[in-house]
Design brief:
With 278 residues, the protein is mostly helical. It has two domains: 115 residues; 155 residues, no CATH class. Helix content is 76%, strand content 0%. The chain contains nine helices and no strands. Helix 3 runs antiparallel to helix 4, helix 5 runs antiparallel to helix 7 and helix 7 runs parallel beside helix 9. The longest helix has 35 residues. The chain starts with a helix and ends in a 15-residue tail after the last helix.
């Protein structure tokens, strides 16, 4: 049943994403609302998938790559829905929902069986750390989408090309505000995730920090976003510079999440049975 619900959620996300992409080319209020409600239906189905998996497993289901990709996608969609409703911007979905859909499709390529937990994972810190981490990642994903839109809109203004897409995209101020809001949400969440991860590591392995590749790249990611937030708060970084750094930060985040786990030997590697991204 869980796998069937996952497929239903994936299909709803896929249809919603197609609707958002069509909305980018040919916007209409009906299409925007349809995409919005399709995404909500997919989100609720996805939530049900996670709950049923939790009940079946008896632990927070974010312990392998399939589950992590799935939860990352869920967090992105949930946070995007919040921003879509707050700013009333359906077009933001054209740049954010494809990321969530790609993560869901990628999750299909990894085993979804529920297995026995590694002893190190049998901890209350599993839920705390992973939920904070992926919710922070989701905020940075929405910021990434807004940054892409900002650079596109700025290019139109610079070249004085005020075509149909320019008219559909939000103003630079709105896009910059979304990106900043996401940063103020995501950075504290990432900070708490790193702190709780260190506490968990001390309990599981007897050390708060071992300079494991995942820990190192998590710290690099934190420093990039810390620099971005510091620049915004103290030197007034806005616009193009902030958008470019937001995109760079997101690329580093993806490498920290997937690249390190799949390519580098690590205590956090998903290639090791029962080991979760901490």
């Amino acid at each position: 049943m869980n796998d069937a619900l996952f497929i239903v959620a994936l299909c709803l996300y896929g249809i919603a994403t197609i609707a958002y992409l069509i909305y980018l080319v040919k916007p209409s209020e009906l299409l925007g609302k349809s995409a919005h409600w399709l995404l909500i239906a997919g989100f609720l189905t996805h939530c049900t998938t996670m709950v049923t998996r939790y009940l079946a497993a008896g632990y927070t289901p974010i312990t392998n790559l399939h589950e992590a990709l799935s939860f990352f996608s869920l967090a992105i969609v949930g946070l995007f829905i919040y921003f879509e409703r707050r700013y009333k911007l359906h077009i933001l979905g054209s740049f954010v929902t494809p990321v969530a859909l790609i993560l869901m499709i990628t999750a299909l390529g990894f085993p979804s069986q529920i297995g026995q937990l590694n002893p190190a994972l049998r901890s209350r810190w599993l839920a705390v750390h992973t939920i904070f981490a992926f919710t922070g990642y989701a905020a940075f994903t929405v910021s990434f989408g807004a940054a892409i839109m900002y650079l596109i809109q700025q290019r139109f203004l610079k070249q004085k090309k005020f075509g149909p897409l320019y008219q559909r995209l939000p103003s630079l101020d709105v896009l910059d505000d979304i990106s900043y809001r996401c940063l103020t949400y995501g950075f504290p969440l990432l900070t708490v995730a790193i702190i709780t991860g260190a506490i968990w590591a001390e309990i599981a392995w007897g050390t708060y920090w071992s300079w494991d590749p995942k820990e190192t790249w998590s710290l690099i990611t934190w420093f990039v976003y810390a620099a971005l937030l510091h620049g915004r708060l103290t030197t007034g970084w806005r616009g193009k510079k902030a958008s470019i750094l937001s995109i760079i930060g997101f690329c580093i985040l993806l490498f920290t999440f997937l690249g390190v786990n799949l390519l580098l030997p690590s205590l956090h590697s998903y290639n090791r049975p029962g080991v979760v991204d901490k």
